[in-house]
Amino acid sequence: MQSTDHEYSGVDLIVVGAGLAGLFTAAIAARSGMSIVVLERSKQAGGRAATQVEVGIHFNLGPHALYCRGEAHGLLGELEVDFSGAFPAGGGAVLTDRDRRYPLPRTLRSVIASRFLTFRDKVRLLRLFGNLARIEPESLDRVSFGDWLRRTVGEGNANRFVRTLCRVATYVDDHERLSAGAAIRQLQLAIAGNVLYLDGGWQSLVDGLRENLASRGVEVRTGSRVRAVRDRGEVVSVELATGETMRGRAAVLAVDPRSAVELLDLPPESPLSAWTRRHIPVKAACLDVALSRLSQPSRLVAFGLESPLYYSVHSASARLAPPPVAVLHVMRYLHPDAHNTPTEVEAELEHYLEALQPGWRDVAQQRRYLPGLTVTHGLPCADDGGLAGRPGVGAAGAGRILLAGDWVGPVGMLADASAASAREAARRVAALLSGPKMPLPRSVSHATAG
Ligand SMILES: Cc1cc2nc3c(=O)[nH]c(=O)nc-3n(C[C@H](O)[C@H](O)[C@H](O)COP(=O)(O)OP(=O)(O)OC[C@H]3O[C@@H](n4cnc5c(N)ncnc54)[C@H](O)[C@@H]3O)c2cc1C
After folding, report:
1. CB 306 within 8 A of CB 98
2. pTM
3. Domain that holds residue 220
4. Fewer Cβ atoms within 10 A, N terminus or C terminus of the chain?
5. Angle of the 257-264 helix axis to the 271-278 helix axis, nearest 10
6. CATH code for the domain in which residue 143 is found
7. What angle do CA 376, 379, 382 make, to 5 degrees?
8. Per-residue pLDDT at 448
9. Which protein residues are within 6 Å of ligand 1, measured from CB?
10. Are 241 and 275 within one domain?
11. What is the pLDDT of residues 272-326, one digit of tens each?
């Protein structure tokens, strides 16, 4: 990147936000030789993919799993970002129903043997899973997942079991609003290719992307809060909280929806403002814990049926702490209409952990409670047409300003949506900049576009 004075610099692309979406966008665009700067308000890059590391113990921001057949995994491969990990340790996985535990039905044999399911449940489940890969999700985008599931497997324990799987795959507990099309795509993805827990946590992806960017001369400026982004015809001006103004030929806002609306100063009646007001974030409460040892080493995975709870020992597969220290996550999926207080939820998570790892408090080395994490922006609602109802990459309404993030575009959920929208945003930037070059305003220099 070149600059003519300390007030502003001209680059081809300014990316706002250094979460996965921003880093992916910059890494794709950098391959075509664009000059790029990434601006991040936090001291650390990574956003929700950041990992806290203390005395060798790695805590992701709640449980994170990378879908092996997902957009993010594919893009990381294309960008040659190195990472390692392993499939979740599935042995001993249980469903809990009050004080009862049932082996998680994972195979044909375990479904047939399950004491949790009636004969009728088993027939319905086997039919559903036999057909799942062939279901065309598009036809169910506007159907409520709750309605679809009742029609497909009835109201019994088969229904509760599939809801549990759906929660794990989507993090969504509001199955009445959730689009059946979106849920089925996510279940198909999970069943087709499993997930990975990553060695060193998701920070390994963030660090890998940053190294990739550094090798192409792309600067990631942390501690740089952006205050406004304006389309000025042939250039975009980006104003930082420090008062500094930067200019580029294009900008990608890889931030949360509310920040995007504020940065663009959109009127309340604009489609993006209206969507931002009505969108429902998908939230979770997480208890991240490191234990010096497990009192019950075989209890590695559990899902609650009576309450939407998750428990998994991630260090049983991924390198997250020096052995024998165990890193595990206990989580409650938060329904948007539920009114449990953070203290009540914390007590519930601790109680759940006590049932699975009795005496855990005596061997706790670290614990962190995060009561209201936004897992993903924009629950894909049936009323909105599912994933297709999310704002598009071009929804900023300004030709040179594009959007990316886990709430943008019709493809994928969670980090896969960040990756898919980043790819589309970078493609559009490349198309924009490949047209005839207009000179940037006087005293703004720019490196050559790809
Ligand atoms: C508990 C939990 C579990 C999850 N599990 C999974 C999982 O298993 N699988 C999966 O695929 N995904 C999972 N996710 C989701 C995944 O972490 C996110 O989808 C992904 O990290 C989002 O990346 P992003 O870049 O779109 O957004 P973010 O990570 O939110 O990045 C946005 C960035 O923009 C910055 N920013 C905002 N405003 C400004 C501004 N004005 N100026 C400069 N910078 C700004 C922010 O600081 C932030 O760094 C999980 C998330 C949580 C919380």
Report:
1. yes
2. 0.94
3. 10-49+204-279+387-433
4. C
5. 150
6. 1.10.405
7. 160
8. 26
9. 16-22, 39-42, 47-49, 61-65, 225-226, 254-256, 259, 263, 284, 286, 373, 375-376, 405-406, 414-416, 418
10. yes
11. 999 999 999 999 999 999 999 999 999 999 999 999 999 999 999 999 999 999 9
Cβ atoms 15, 263 nearer than 8 A: no
The ligand 1 atom at the shortest distance from the C-alpha of residue 64 is: 8
Closest CA to 403 of 242, 241, 271, 206: 271
- Protein residue closest via CA to atom 1 of ligand 1: 62
Q: Which residue has the least CA distance to atom 9 on ligand 1?
A: 65
Write down how long the chain is. 450
3-state secondary structure of 219: strand
CA 18 – ligand 1 centroid, Å: 9
* String of DSSP letters for 27-77: HHHHTTT--EEEE-SSSSSBGGG-EEEETTEEEESS---EETTSHHHHHHH
Can you tell me the distance from the alpha carbon of 433 to that of 2, in angstroms, rounded to the nearest whole number? 18
The burial class, CB within 10 Å (0-12 / 13-18 / 19+), for 233 is: exposed
Share of the chain above pLDDT 70, in %: 94
| pLDDT for 441 beyond 90 | no
CA dist., res. 193 & res. 284, Å (int): 24
The span from the CA of 107 to the CA of 381, in Å, is 30
Q: Is residue 275 domain-shared with residue 415, that is, in the same domain?
A: yes
Do 284 and 368 sit in the same domain of this protein?
A: yes
The total domain count for the chain is 3
Contact in structure between 398 and 228 (CB atoms under 8 Å): no
Which residue, 152, 185, 164, is CA-closest to 388?
185
Paired tokens of 59? 């805590």
Q: Hey, how many other C-beta atoms are within 10 angstroms of the C-beta on 374?
A: 15
* DSSP code for 15: E
Helical ranges in 95-136 per DSSP H: 108-113, 119-131
Q: How many Å lie between the centroid of ligand 1 and the Cα of residue 90?
A: 27
**How far, in Å, CA of 384 to CA of 380, rounded?**
7
Calculate ∠ Cα 128-131-135, nearest 5°. 105
User: Are 325 and 391 part of one and the same domain?
Assistant: no
> What's the token pair of residue 450?
């790809």
How far apart (Å, rounded) are the C-alpha atoms in residues 272 and 275? 5
| C-beta separation of 290 from 327 below 8 A | yes
